Amino acid sequence: MSLIDKIITQYGIQKLDLLSRYPRIPSYHKKTAKGLLTEVVSVELLETEKYYVTELISGSHVRVIISGNDYIIGDRISLLYAKGDRLGYSNRLITNPVMESLRGLHLNSESIFVLNFIVYGAPGLEGSERYSEDGSIGFRLHDVEEMRLSNFEFPLDELMALSWDDRDGFLGVTDLKKFAKDNKFVLVPALRTLGGKAFPIDRISGLKFLQKFPMTKVGLNTKGSPKGIVVRSEERDSAFKMIVDDYIITGKKEKWSNKIMYG
Q1: Quick check: 210 and 219 in contact, CB under 8 A?
Q2: Rounded to an integer, what distance in angstroms lies between the CA atom of residue 164 and that of residue 218?
Q3: Where does residue 139 rank: exposed (0-12), middle (13-18), buried (19+ CB within 10 A)?
Q4: In the chain, what's the furthest Cα-to-Cα distance?
Q5: What number of CA atoms fall less than 13 Å from residue 202's CA on the CB side?
Q6: Chain segment 12-70, per-residue pLDDT in tens
Q7: Is pTM beyond 0.90 here?
Q8: Is the alpha carbon torsion for 93, 73, 85, 103 positive or negative?
Q9: 34, 45, 102, 166: which one has the fewest Cβ atoms less than 10 Å from its Cβ?
């Protein structure tokens, strides 16, 4: 019996599902109830800390819960497929590309890892026109977590509240790069490494900052504009995102974005 099956037998599949879901990444500028950006910054950035800027890719999030060579594949909120057809439903559009990459993969059977991917480009996936003109599909790895088995002791009603600080099993930047290289995965594009003071404070500066990244780095056979950026600390204990359309929509509502976008 694999460690995954042991965990399911002891704690139930619902806990495995909840604990393997990717934590929510907050917007850099907080949003109103109507989804418009405010001037309030949601994270505290340290001057001495390194922050890693990567491209935010439109598509579908896929997680792989794996121990040894046993695995379960899920999207952001559901478990879809288990090796050996132990789960009956599979969204082939997003699971097949990732499943192919798992052939021959064997990780430590005494740990459970969660591999977090973004699948993009295929018709029906968000923002596919940014990357593909013919329905080609791609996927990139963006985070790996070694699950803390002690977290399974939490009651179900507390699991949803676990934050990045509680989920301290994410691989740091150096280890993530090594994991990807060793297991032949391609990471989301790294754009820059910056100190805390390099990031904008107000929304207008935020839109100008995003203009430094005008074109996607993951185009399959076309290159559109990127969705935005994700910024994570070196040890993966904090993260935030900046979505281009959030700034444009807010700016149009308040009549300041057109001047920045079009001069």
Answers
A1: no
A2: 27
A3: buried
A4: 63
A5: 5
A6: 999 999 999 998 899 999 999 999 999 999 999 998 999 999 999 999 999 999 999 99
A7: yes
A8: positive
A9: 34
pLDDT of residue 258: 77
- Cα separation, 148 vs 129, in Å, equals 38
Hey, which residues does 59 pair with through a beta bridge? none
The answer as to CATH 3.40.50.2000 being correct for domain 3-262 is no
Both ends of the chain: CA-CA distance in Å? 63
CB-count exposure of residue 155 (10 Å: 0-12, 13-18, 19+): exposed
CB 194 within 8 A of CB 51: yes
Element housing 14 (H / E): helix 13-20
SS (H, E, C) 105-140: CCCCCCCCEEEEEEEECCCCCCCHHHCCCCCCCEEE
**CA distance readout (Å), 125 to 45, 118, 138:** 33, 11, 11
Tokens of 231: 């910024």
What is the distance between the alpha carbons of residues 114 and 145, in angstroms, rounded to a whole number? 5
